[in-house]
């Protein structure tokens, strides 16, 4: 869903330009920013009933992508390969699920990284999926035939389709065999919705990596736990969720006005899209509650200068790697 429009050059990523604790102390002592610190009297998320609010949120993101469908908005996230070297260290065939793939800014560097890598990318916007296919198909220097499979899905409401990993295969891989759909029904694999599958395949057998790159912050907070559980259900044992998103006290959080708060650390932009800002504790709790093991979790603090106005910007992101445990031997 989300696209991060203000990312920096790859050389600046994963650095420590300033200490997050120093920024926290500065923000929390500034009376003009006190509205960001108050305990919210509204339940997070407070924007309506769960199904209705998610639908509205998806509509807002579809409109966002329609407005920003030009090539100027595309910026390939090459830093991912440095931040997540696991994506390039595997020699064998690798399957990646990109959740909220947007216009392909994350998909393209992953495909460039390995000739045996296949990416399955979902988003709630048909327009942005078409744009992603155009960008990936037009990319030079890579062989992408049959290696990028975009599919339409509002993952804030619906479960992932069973052609990713069916219920019986989840059980055989040591999964919890839980139905995450809201209505008790999951989409069954078929040649019509998964034309890249062979006739005798029940599913692709799960993925090695799930990437959540500036995606989870775009959904209501009260949906995040279920979404992470669904993501974990698509992983093979030992697989990783690779996570990067907005961190607490990032510059964009401090720009929101008090009336844009819809929950604790959760804000709504004027166009109806949401943005949540993660602390390390909240991120750890969300992923651990889904049964995942924390391998890496830290703030990424970047200081850069806006070339247009000369102002210094302090950006904060949360970087994390979470692993699905191997099943216990019986």
TrEMBL record:
What SUPFAM superfamilies would the database entry show? S-adenosyl-L-methionine-dependent methyltransferases
Q: Does the keyword Methyltransferase apply?
A: yes
Could you tell me which Gene3D superfamilies the record lists for this protein? Vaccinia Virus protein VP39
Please state the Enzyme Commission number of this protein. Answer: 2.1.1.-
Q: Which InterPro entries match?
A: METTL2/6/8-like, SAM-dependent_MTases_sf
Instruction: Write down a Pfam family by its short name.
Output: Methyltransf_23
Similarity-based family: Belongs to the methyltransferase superfamily. METL family.
The name this protein carries in UniProt is tRNA N(3)-methylcytidine methyltransferase
Native source organism of the sequence: Ananas comosus
Which lineage do the record's taxonomy fields give for this organism?
Eukaryota, Viridiplantae, Streptophyta, Embryophyta, Tracheophyta
Please name the gene that encodes this protein: LOC109714889
């Amino acid at each position: 869903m989300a696209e991060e429009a203000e990312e920096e050059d790859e050389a600046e990523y994963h650095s420590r330009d300033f200490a997050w604790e120093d920024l926290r102390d500065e923000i929390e002592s500034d009376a003009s920013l006190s509205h960001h610190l108050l305990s919210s009297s509204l339940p997070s998320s407070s924007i309506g009933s769960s199904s209705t609010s998610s639908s509205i949120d998806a509509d807002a993101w579809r409109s966002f992508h329609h407005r920003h469908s030009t090539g100027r908005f595309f910026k390939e996230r090459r830093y991912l390969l440095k931040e997540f070297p696991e994506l390039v260290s595997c020699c064998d065939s690798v399957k990646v699920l990109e959740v909220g793939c947007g216009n392909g800014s994350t998909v393209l560097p992953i495909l460039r990284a390995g000739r045996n890598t296949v990416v399955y990318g979902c988003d709630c916007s048909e327009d942005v999926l078409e744009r992603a296919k155009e960008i990936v198909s037009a990319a030079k220097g890579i062989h992408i035939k049959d290696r990028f499979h975009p599919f339409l899905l509002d993952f804030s409401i619906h479960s992932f389709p069973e052609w990713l990993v069916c219920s019986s295969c989840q059980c055989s891989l040591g999964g919890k065999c839980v139905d995450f759909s809201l209505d008790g029904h999951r989409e069954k694999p078929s040649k019509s919705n998964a034309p890249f599958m062979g006739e005798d395949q029940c599913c692709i057998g799960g993925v090695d990596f799930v990437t959540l790159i500036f995606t989870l912050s775009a959904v209501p907070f009260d949906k995040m736990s279920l979404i992470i559980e669904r993501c974990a259900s698509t992983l093979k044992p030992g697989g990783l969720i690779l996570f990067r998103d907005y961190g607490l006290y990032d510059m964009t959080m401090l720009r929101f006005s008090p009336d844009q708060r819809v929950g604790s650390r959760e804000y709504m932009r004027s166009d109806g899209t949401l943005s949540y800002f993660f602390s390390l504790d909240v991120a750890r709790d969300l992923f651990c509650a889904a049964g995942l093991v924390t391998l890496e979790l830290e703030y990424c603090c970047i200081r850069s200068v806006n070339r247009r106005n000369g102002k210094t910007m302090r950006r904060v992101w949360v970087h994390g790697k979470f692993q699905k445990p191997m099943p216990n031997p019986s």
